[in-house]
Design brief:
Radius of gyration: 14 Å
Number of domains: 1
Helix content: over 70%
Number of helices: 5
Largest sheet: none
């Protein structure tokens, strides 16, 4: 299995899981309240789920991979900015930045593949 496929599947799984958790768990709800962004929690969860599904569809149809990886990368750069604004610790902030760069890498590789 190619490295890009493995990375894409790993990112898709993470976003599918975290999207569902974002819609169903109290801890994520509390985070969004702390950020003052509780009105965006459901939208964010839905976008994460759609992004994860788009990555999986993108394994067979490249435009879906471009949209999913680009959208998730943007979402995670915004999440990192929110974490920085809230003065969260590096340990709390780095996962969003790592996923932003992971999905940016997926996007760039997918565009090069075309």
């Amino acid at each position: 299995m190619r490295a890009l496929t493995v990375l894409t599947c790993a990112s898709a799984a993470a976003f599918l899981i975290y999207g569902v958790l974002g819609l169903t768990t109290q801890s994520v709800t509390k985070d969004f309240e702390r950020f003052g962004l509780q009105h965006l929690r459901v939208l964010t969860g839905v976008l994460e789920i759609l992004g994860g599904l788009s990555l999986l569809v993108g394994l067979k149809w490249l435009p879906a991979l471009w949209i999913g990886s680009g959208g998730l990368s943007l979402l995670m750069f915004i999440a990192f900015a929110v974490r920085v604004r809230m003065r969260d610790s590096l340990a709390e902030s780095l996962p969003s930045l790592a996923f932003a760069f992971l999905n940016l890498y997926i996007l760039i590789r997918a565009i090069q593949h075309d």
